[in-house]
Amino acid sequence: MKKILQYAFCLLLTGCFIVKTQAQQVIPKDSVIQLFGVVMTADSLRAIPAASILVQGAGRGTLTNDQGVFSIAVLQGQKIRFSCVGFKDVVINIPDKVVDNQYYVIQLLVSDTAYLPATILKPRPSREQFERDFANTRIPNDQYEIARQNIDEAKRRVLLATLPADGREAVNAQLRQQASKLYYQGQQPPINILNPAAWSEFIKAWKRGDFKSKNDD
Questions:
Q1: 216 pLDDT above the threshold of 80
Q2: Final residue of a domain: which of 79, 109, 139?
Q3: CB–CB of 36/69 below 8 Å?
Q4: Range of the domain at 41
Q5: Which controlled-vocabulary keywords does the entry list (predicted)?
Q6: CA–CA dist 164, 180 (Å, integer)
Q7: Collapsing DSSP states into helix, strand and coil, what is residue 13?
Q8: Is residue 166 domain-shared with residue 97, that is, in the same domain?
């Protein structure tokens, strides 16, 4: 009987310890607060968009909107880090006792200037040295092949017939394509195989040798 009472007493102590441990792990509702505010520059008081608000030790955070406004749920006593590219980081502490479970802050960030090492640009001392360096520049073999293809006469004719000459012509070609697409919207566009103008362009290209094979050379 005595052993049974001792065993029951040990179980009771163990249960009390487990309940106490679980109670300590539960976060009280009063400790959760809503942190909100605005992040601005310290010199001109302008809103900083896309600034990071990170809860240290929690692995979570948020970003400010276009007006620099943010809102995030945190715990009392936590540390909040404000950071943004081009500004110095700022860390604040949430008070242990906050009224109405809300905390408002206007955080000012100071600009952080990054000084890069000086770069000095110097011209070529002479034309002879430029020609020497240009002639000794090593070019991969595939670049030679691309250059050889670009100077091919048949390819240059095809590019001349297909590519626009300048920006204005490119815009006009795009507008003509859009107009043609909208004109034939909801119906079958015409087939160029029955178009005399298309046949005329094909015959001219064939006579110029645009479709001539390289092996025939």
A1: no
A2: 109
A3: yes
A4: 29-109
A5: Carboxypeptidase, Hydrolase, Protease, Signal
A6: 18
A7: helix
A8: no
8 in any annotated domain? no
Calculate the dihedral angle through the C-alpha atoms of 179, 180, 182, 185, rounding to the nearest 10 degrees: 180
List for the chain the helix, strand, coil content (%; round to 5).
45, 20, 35
Q: Is residue 14 part of a domain?
A: no
Q: Which of 132-146, 177-191, 201-215 shows the lowest per-residue confidence on average (mean pLDDT)?
A: 201-215
What CATH code is carried by the domain that includes residue 102?
2.60.40.10
Same domain, 101 and 131: no
Tell me which DSSP letter residue 217 carries: -
CA-based nearest residue to 38, from 94, 92, 107, 91: 107
Token digits for 211? 């479709």
| Alpha-carbon separation of residue 81 from 23, 35, 91, 102, 112 (angstroms) | 29, 13, 4, 18, 16
Residue 21 lies in a domain: no
Structure tokens at 157: 């004719």
pLDDT-wise least confident of 44-48, 116-120, 131-135, 167-171: 167-171
| Residue 55: Cβ within 10 Å count | 19
Domain count, the chain: 2
Q: Which H helix or E strand runs over 35? A: strand 32-41
Q: Tell whether 96 and 131 lie within a shared domain.
A: no
On whether residue 71 sits in a domain, the answer given is yes
Measured CA to CA in angstroms, residue 155 lies from 150, 152, 167, 170 at distances of 7, 5, 21, 20
Residue 133 and residue 94 share a domain: no
Tell me the Cα Rg of the chain: 37
